[in-house]
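Problem 12. The chain below contains 107 residues. Write out its predicted structure in token notation.
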Amino acid sequence: MITHSISLSEIVERIQTPEGTLEITAACDADYNAPAHELCVQLSCFACPEDLTDDRRHRTLDWLPAPESVREHVEREEAREQAREIFASWVRRVRQAVDAWKVSSAT
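Solution.
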């Protein structure tokens, strides 16, 4: 029985590509299972065109981190904060991937 869910997302960066401006977004969906004291966090990242009139489908880019799943045993009171901390760490990883892409594409 899942008793608590949280979804978070953050536009990490806007990048220029030959296709136009893409928004790189980090996302997190977390569920807390109270009887098991288990927090399950699904992490992902994707790109989509910034232009609202363009195709808004999410695109995966091979240089972005692959989706991950994290499980933690925590008390209910700690679940929301733990999910936010896991997400913050994920955002840093996505930002590092963007920075590495910028360096490699500049040369």
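Discussion. Residues 2-106 form one domain. Students who got a different answer should revisit the alignment rule from Section 12.3.
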